[in-house]
Design brief:
319 residues, alpha+beta, Protein Transport Mog1p, Chain A, 9-stranded antiparallel beta sheet, 6-stranded antiparallel beta sheet, 10 helices, disordered N terminus
């Protein structure tokens, strides 16, 4: 019977940990909900806030739910504010698994005017979005008016102030070369479908992206030349090497000895690996730029060798 106890105890511990984690997510959203204002300017909260999890989110935003799931969404709180003389305002607060994922979902759409709200905010056409710690917040007016815009902006500041802690950005951003980087082009992701949304690579997951990987896509402008750089951090060097081999096999079968190839559209693509870090120039206006991008990314990786030896989970936990 002892062997059964040895199996049962870890299962009980794992189950308890999962229950505690789910409770913590619920409690944090409930606490935040209790502090939300009942009125904003001339808008009052509609009775009956709604909650959604990673399964029921499709009942609320069918079509975009998969994007939130790709960033490890835990729960979502939805509240509507109504005004008899104006459009409804919808507040959605998404609790993600980590601040890195909250940042990631924020980078999925970076159009708009930058605001000093939370840890990064954008406003465009009646819609305000920002991230702070493990929360991604979306506030939009169903019709844009001057009064609704003031209410949306005001509500955003209130919600941001209620989230009292800040969280770190993904460390993989440290590997992005600084020269020519276009900040609003940065997309942090885990899922190949999200990558394809921003830059189509393949219908198949040829890079083996998933919850165990951290990836960042960014655009560059150097003089008159442009490039798209993708960095992927794997749990170990073996998986990174396998991903590189798969990329060459499916995407760059005609790559030369330096891992570069001229694409049919006249752009250059190249790839290499540095320990656990896969570096891919998806396209660049010249071979020289493609090779320079890989070189600069490798330099940044060399400066962070101690971090590259950590596991992906450890790096997320801030070890």
């Amino acid at each position: 019977m002892k062997w059964r106890r040895f199996i049962l105890i870890p299962l009980l511990i794992s189950g308890l940990a999962l229950l505690m984690m789910r409770t913590s997510y619920a409690d944090s959203l409930e606490v935040l909900r209790a502090a939300l204002p009942g009125r904003v300017s001339g808008w009052g909260a509609e009775p009956g806030d709604r909650f959604f999890d990673a399964e029921t989110i499709f009942d609320y935003i069918d079509g975009a739910g998969e994007v939130y799931r790709a960033y490890n969404m835990r729960r979502c709180l939805c509240r509507r504010y109504i005004n008899p003389k104006g459009p409804s305002i919808v507040l959605d607060i998404f609790h993600m698994a980590s601040s890195e994922d909250a940042f990631g979902i924020f980078t999925h759409d970076q159009d708009g005017e930058e605001l000093d709200v939370g840890q990064g905010a954008l406003y465009r056409s009646g819609w305000l979005s920002f991230w702070k710690d493990r929360f991604f917040v979306s506030i939009y007016a169903e019709e844009e008016t001057a009064a609704a815009e003031r209410a949306v902006r005001g509500l955003g500041k209130v919600v941001a102030a209620l989230i009292t802690t800040e969280g770190p950005k993904p460390r993989i951003l440290l590997h992005l070369p600084a020269e020519g980087l276009q900040p609003k082009s940065i997309r942090y992701l885990h899922h190949y479908l999200v990558l394809n949304y921003h830059f189509y690579v393949s219908d198949e997951n040829i890079l083996n992206l998933g919850p165990h990987t951290d990836a960042v896509l960014a655009g560059y402008q150097r003089g008159t030349e442009c490039a798209q750089l993708l960095l992927v951090l794997y749990p170990n060097a073996e998986e990174a090497a396998q991903a590189l081999a798969g990329f060459f096999r499916h995407y760059l079968p005609e790559a030369d000895s330096k891992g570069a190839v001229l694409l049919e559209n006249g752009k250059w693509s190249a790839a290499t690996v540095k320990g656990r870090l896969l570096e891919v120039v998806l396209e660049a206006d010249s071979r020289g730029l493609a090779q320079s991008m890989l070189s600069k990314a490798a330099e940044a990786a060399s400066q962070n060798q101690s971090w590259l030896r950590l596991t992906t989970r450890e790096s997320k936990e801030g070890v």
